[in-house]
Amino acid sequence: MGCCKEAPALSAEVDRQLDEVVGKHKDQPGALLEILHEVQRIFGYLSDDVLIAVSKKLGIRTSEAYGVATFYSLLSTKPKGKNIIRVCVSGPCHVMGSDTILQSIEDELQIGVGETTSDGLFTLETTSCLGVCSDAPAMMINDKVYGNLTKEKVRMILRSYAEVKEASVS
Amino acid sequence: MTSSAQIEKRIVLRNYGKIDPNSIDDYVKAGGYSALKRAVTQMQPAEIIKTVKDSGLRGRGGAGFPTGLKWEFAAKAQGSPKYIICNADEGEPGTYKDRLILEGDPHSVIEGMAIAARAIGASKGFFYIRGEYVKPIEMVKKAIEQARAAGFLGKRIAGSDFEFDIEVRSGAGAYVCGEETALMESIEGKRGESRVKPPYPTDEGLWGKPTVINNVETLANIAPIIENGAEWFRAIGTPKCTGTKVFTLSGDVVNKGAFEVPMGTTLRTLVFELGGGIPNGKEFLMAQVGGSAGGCLPASLLDVRLDLESLREVDGSLGSGALLIVDDSRSVLDVVRSCMKFFEHESCGKCTLCREGTARLARLVDKIAEGQANTEDLKLLERLSRIMERTCLCGLGQAAPKPILTTLKYFKDEYLIRVSDQATPKGA
Predict the structure, then answer these.
(1) Which domain covers residue B347, as residue numbers?
(2) Among candidates A165, A60, A128, which has minimal Cα distance to B130?
(3) Can you tell me the ipTM of this complex?
């Protein structure tokens, strides 16, 4: 991302949405992280264009916004699938077999960690501890946590998300 | 065998499972907010600080700093405004006590924060909750609104002229933000990179102002201490480590869950009485106490007391109170490897020793586990670990070598059988 890139021509609608988020936090010091959370919730990820626009509106350098966006693992500067799967690979889940869980997801979806399925339905990631260690091995899909995973359970969960998609298509 | 009810002692989990956490009325009926009323209407800030100091309460986030002393430093510090922060960035692998407290009794933490604010003279507080804790974030936000409506937050609290309010901020997936200075950077909207200390937060914290930052479990202890007095609290636990601790069991143990017991309860009691022992006919191999940044203790140390001092004596640490139990079908080095991968990923990258050191440690452990290392590698592993302990900028890098150093001490054979001087030396 070039430091001198001009603010892109975002659609009026996108610009209005960004104004709304930034405006909501205008009297709140240090709200950049909160703003990026909300913006990502609307657009799915933080594109260069959006980051440039947000930093302009806040009067900060784009590098600052980009630095924050790339520091935190829940923020993304790249587009992702509709459902983000985060498999915990920290100590307790590792001991309880997260490797097997990860492998079975890779087999089921035919993608590796960091990749998105060709239909755009799933992105697979690993994560540090989710704080549900009594139910290890665990994963999160979007905001929902699943524990005590087995290969079979994982397959059923993934299929339930795939069915939601099919149902909404028909 | 003693029943678990006789071993457990519930202070911070006093209301857990007994009240509806979404109901402030339930909390008040259970005696909630009466300590806050007393603190604002009948006690001077110095008296609150003295009570907390006399109770002997020490921080439950891992470092074990005396809470009352921290409050006193902030109360005496020059600068205004002052802030109180609740650290709910629970990211230490194997730890889920703060989540349980927030989901089971959010008002107990809000009440603790308000009392702390009264003690140090703060009118604004931040509740920093990790981004993965979607449900606790919602519950705390709701509880804050309820407390405001009931007059326990906002202006003229409990009819006094004391004013205090709390804002919730959520993290975004960075373990290092559990470190107090990195957490403050994050609240300021920056990358969560640790700061050089001193200055300490009580002098120059959030936005450079005097700040007290306390863990969720620490704050949940405050109202009971104000209600029941310092002597009552001191009678629980050990002389130097008073009160209780919530331990969270995970891994190869029958009863995985949270248990609140007096400080100084033995590891054996936790694993074999409350935890119900090792399942599937296996034997106990080790317990990693305090999370991935904690020490790995062998069966010969099952009678160690779980408190700050006793664990330090065996080169372990109490940390967050996570207990990862590992049975004898597993490999010690496999667990160490997983820890090192974690630290390599979570190092914030600000100080060279941690950024490079965690990566080098991970590669060295990989090399050893794969049988590619020689005795020089082993020496290098220990030397680098010792250097990092002493020279990394913050607790992350300083504690990262702990699993290595304790397994080198207690499971040295696991390393020795894998290294050979015939192995081709490769750059670690």
Answers:
(1) 332-419
(2) A128
(3) 0.93
